[in-house]
Amino acid sequence: MSVIASSQPHRDIQQNKAPALNRPQNRLVIGGLVVAAALTLFLAFTQDIVQPLLLVIGLGLGYTLFHARFGFTSAFRRLASVGNGQAIRAHMVMLAVACSLFAPILAIGTTFFGAEATGNVSPVGVSLIVGAFLFGIGMQLGGGCASGTLYAVGGGRSVMFITLLFFIIGSTIGAAHFSFWMNDMPAAEPFSLATSTNLGYGGAWLVSLLIFGAAILLSLWIEKKRNPPKMAALPSASGWKRIFRGSWPLMAAAVALAVLNALTLLTRGSPWGVTSAFTLWGSKAADALGFNVESWGYWQGNIDALHASIFADTTTVLNFGVILGAFIASAAGGLFKFSNITAKNAAASVIGGLLMGYGARLAFGCNVGAYFSGIASFSAHGYIWGVMALGGTFLALYLRPLFGLSVPKPKDTFC
């Protein structure tokens, strides 16, 4: 029987009933709330009104991700290894709700504050294909995708600090190589189901729902053929206490994430993303070390953002919110605890982080910015990102054992 080591309860081990809840770590919860309140006030007094609002949205995203252990990396791995599509179906519900909310917002085209609302619609080309494939490998070695890295850091999973560091480094290297991939590699124009066709947002919404429905049916067909183990129950409270203590159902989290993404779009004018902030942080560090960052193609036309405060960057504020939200959620569940780091999982985190960072820059985003927000924006590149990341996941299943990382098997008790 195989066992997966983790510092946190997860949905991998198949059990008949959920384990008992731990006691809440009240001091940590209070500390997290104090830091969140202080940061909110700081942003309110020093930045545009959008920034403190985005911090609150980020707190909600991190809280939701941790409470449901909502994974992108694990969902792809379960499907690729044993054919379990439970989490993938949650993805489809999330995307369906997001598309339903994005369609009228993008059709109207304005935010809460009167700015233009635009979706994440990016070109389809070699950079997208290569980048998403590399990201798929990286997220399976690094132990989490972009959002997964942030919420795992917030939950105290020590090795993910290594993943995050090298994610930032990989993103920075990708920014330095950005001109080559954008200018020297072939690519088609961005394609939107809504604006590049005669469908409009109503027709694109309907087509999207049909695609999500087909994906759900395909996942059910795969499960029928392969009869995989089911996802485990997680510790949870009952009644209204479940909002604060214990796990949330995947489908509830899927709806919550879609709503929060739509609120992000309505607040800042663009959907949720993660990795552009990593590129900003790394580029600022490279600039301080003497690299000629301003000459990189990635920053052409956006030099002001490079030299502005990180607190003026909307994605940075969202990321801080996700980490804090996950920290509060983990402490409320009595689960915050730093975990052990071994040489093998550290090496996997280094390689995985580099591949994810580099891949995200090539592919116009990660599991959030390209896959989730791209598909919700009716962009073809979001679907291609998902397919190529799944392809990278298949290859990574052969690489994970080299680093002592488990690979689910049909007869194991986990998936």
TrEMBL record:
Query: Per the record, GO CC terms?
Result: plasma membrane
State where it is primarily located.
Answer: membrane
Q: Which topology term describes how it sits in the membrane?
A: Multi-pass membrane protein
InterPro entries linked to this entry: Sulf_transp_TsuA/YedE
Q: Where in the cell is it found?
A: Cell inner membrane
**Keywords assigned by UniProt, alphabetized:** Cell inner membrane, Cell membrane, Membrane, Transmembrane, Transmembrane helix, Transport
Which residue ranges traverse the bilayer?
Answer: 28-46, 52-72, 93-114, 126-152, 159-182, 202-222, 243-266, 317-336, 348-372, 378-399
The UniProt entry's sequence similarity note says: Belongs to the TsuA/YedE (TC 9.B.102) family.
The name this protein carries in UniProt is: Transporter
Q: Which organism is it from?
A: Shouchella clausii (strain KSM-K16)
